[in-house]
Amino acid sequence: SADTYEALKIGSQNRKVGATCMNKESSRSHSVFVLQLCLKQVRDGVTTRRFSRFNLIDLAGSERQKHTNSQGDRLKEANNINRSLSALGNVIMALANSNPHVPYRDSKLTFILKDSIGGNSKTWIIANISPADICVDETLSTLKFVRFAKLVKNVATINQDSSGDMKALRMELDRV
Fold this sequence. Notes:
elongated, 20% strand, 40% helix, three-stranded antiparallel sheet
């Protein structure tokens, strides 16, 4: 709808960008857009609600200080970006290796994405890589990340909640 598009547009305009030696409009933060939908249906005294959440995430790319010549605030931003990407990589590795402990709480990003990575969801990843020789390390790191991310198996189920009077609920159970 128009409201959703407007919220996405405002978020995009508020995205922090800054110049580095490699990119004059470098993303200085991750972008997270969450759209929650609820479908409510009432039939024979039973109210059924179905929920969905779409997480659209644009991750800022990792940066090597020697290539970007970042200093001051840009260097701090790069360190924060790299730290959260590292935490995301640790979560992906833990899930890919079926570790009993997954460190979702190590960053805000991984905590927000908990359902999208290893939870009740369908997840797609689009990786942006560069053919430039100077970016070979970042490109290989991205491809390695995607390879491990493909090993994570999510199980998507319908998020549904029903309520109503007991007689109507029993009739609904009999019907199903």
